Amino acid sequence: MSLAADAAPVDVTLPRVGRCLRVYNAPEVLEALGRAMPGWPLRCEPAAGFSPELYVYRDGAGLWQSDPGTAEEFMLPSAASAACSLAADLLSLRLEQESELVGLHCGSVEIGGRLALFPQSSRAGKSTLATAFAAAGYRLFGDDVLGLSPEGRGVAMGVAPRLRLPLPASFSAEFADYTRRRAGPEDERYRFVVPADGGLARSGETCPLGALVLLERHDTPVSPEVLTLAPGEGLLQLLCQNFARADLFQQPLPEALMARFLSLMEQLPCLLLRYGEPLAGARYLARVLEGGEAGTPASPPSGSAAADSAGTVDRTVPWRPGAGVSVYPLGEELFLIHAPSGDIHRLNLTGRLVWQLLQHEALAIAELGALLADHFAAPADAVTDDVAGLIQALYGAGLVAPAG
């Protein structure tokens, strides 16, 4: 780290985290970070004592940030980019400090006194839809990270939503105008959008959960549509998009979280929002959740997340459940967690019946096919082929084994 001789370092302290960041010779970073975190106020004081692991400085080459946990540093192109990077690191520190919280990678908005969650992967439209809800007058709990309390309530982090630039031309003029009027720190790549007073929940505010909503955003104009999904769709997203660390639970992560998430999924509706223009999608989803309209049932999932073709396993060999498999029922579906790998597998009703039969006694594929064909009054050959594909997938995942 090479600094000017007259650099005046500043230490940043945040509620629930403490003294966590040192900034050298970069007041523009402090200003941008404060605007990007309006619901999580930072306190700045003259630096004292040892530097926190997280620091930022400006030298003749530009802005630099430390990479926590390593001895490395990396360059930042702008103060807005620094705010993006630092906010993510500070949220991680907070979740480490509040070990009772599970950190979910999701957007969240309060509708009718309950939170709608969007637990999606990156670039799925979480931030865009969250910003659209703010433009439509709803209160945000966040666009990227939400805490989940042991009681099952959402906990706000207090960070404003961030959009990638430029905005697509297909977005409405109303939406684009809102993002310009409420613009916070920005550069060529990103823009924070800061809702008006009261439009963003403050850090630590809580709200009960109301629904999980998966997103399907289209680049071409489409009329918004809401489909009702099986609860398992939402459960998989929650398990895949959490930030919790396994060492906080002292056991494999999916096992530790499954009990917490199962009770939620038994109560929450799981929906799919198909939309093109974000403001229209937000308003349509709000009407559905407020009771104005109903979602359309979606097609059921396939028998197993891993079963994609008929297998080559011996159909005359009896099969039994494998060792180290934990079983969690949810509605008509069944979730299997393979303890050695931590992998999660989802079975529909047919797959669940196969698993239950194997729990009672070891059975060959031909025997399973005959039993299911009789149960469903379906052609035995076709059912047996499907069972062979399922057993092949389960065997490949280590979930079943030949008996004896």
UniProtKB/TrEMBL annotation:
Transmembrane residue ranges: none
Origin superkingdom: Bacteria
Pfam families: PqqD
SUPFAM superfamilies: PEP carboxykinase-like
Protein name: PqqD family peptide modification chaperone
The organism of origin for this protein: Halomonas piscis
